[in-house]
Amino acid sequence: MTAYILNRVLIGLATLLLASIVVFGVMEVLPGDPAQLMLGMSGSPEALANLRAQMGLDEPIVWRYLHWIGGLLTGDFGRSYTYSSPVADLIRERLAVSLPLALMSLLLSTFIALPVGIFAAARRGRLPDTLSMGTAQLGVAVPNFWFALLLIYAFAVWLKWLPAGGFPGWNGGIWNGIKSLILPSIALALPQAAILARVTRSALLDVLGEDYIRTARAKGLPRGRVLRRHALRNAMIPVLTILGLQFAFLLAGTIIIENVFYLPGLGRLIFQAITQRDLIVVEGVVMLLVASVIVVNIMVDLAYAVVDPRLREAA
Hints:
The structure is a single chain. The chain is built from 15 helices and no strands. The chain is mainly α. The longest helix is centred in the N-terminal third of the chain and has 36 residues, at about 85-120. GO terms for molecular function: dipeptide transmembrane transporter activity. Belongs to the binding-protein-dependent transport system permease family.
C-alpha cells in the first residue's frame, strides 16, 4: 500500500511540473504586452521600459520560469500588477469564499444524489424510477444560473429568508457568511446532484446483476440489506470518480454563479485577471487549481482502495 501511495504522489508531482510548463508557456505566447495594456496608449517609452523591467518581462524566458516556479515552491506567487498586492493574499482572501462554497455544494449534492440513485435503482422500471430519472435529466439539462435566478426570486425577493447576493465576510459572523452561501451552493449542487444520481443508479444496476448478489438473495437476505451492504459499496468506485471531478469543477468553475450572486471568489478573481491581463494572478490561480485537482485525485485513488479490497490487495 505504501508503494501504491508513493507511486500516486510521484505521478502527481510529475503532472504538476508538466502543468507548470504548459501554463507558463501558454501565458507567454498570448498576444499583447501586459505592460502596454496597463499603461495604455498614452504611456511613454521610458515608462513602458521601466514597467517591463519592474515586471521582469525583459529577462530571458527560462530565467523567468525558474524564478516563478521557485517562488511557487516557497509560497511566493508574485505580486499582482492590477491590485498591487501579493497574489498569495488575493488567493487566500478569495479561497475563503470559494472553498466553503465548493464544500457546501458537494455535501448537498451528495446527500441528494445518493438516496435518489439508490431509490431509483431499487425500483428499476417502475414509476418512481421513471420520475426520479426524469427529474435528474431535467436537472442536467437546465443551466445552474437559471436555478440561481429562481432561487433569488423565491427565497430572497419573495420570502426574504436569505440574501440575494454579496458576502459580508467571516468577520461579520459565521452564520451570516453561511447564509450568503446557501443559495449559491444550492444553485451549484442541483445540477451536480442530477449527474451523480444517474451515475449512482447506473453503477448499482451493474452491480445488482452480479452473481454474488444473486447468491446473497438466494440465501434469504432482505433486498434492502443486500443493496446497502453488498451492492452499494462495490458500486462506489464510479461514484467516487464523479465526486472528485465535481469538487474540482465546483472549486474552479463557479465564475457564472459568483457573478450572479456577486461573490468575491476564485472564479471571479481569475475572470477579472484574464480581462485585465494580469498574468501573474492567472498563473498563480491556475497552478493552485491544478494542484487541488491532483490532490483530490490522489485522495480518490486512496478511497478506491478503501471501498474495494481487491484494489488494496493489488496495491
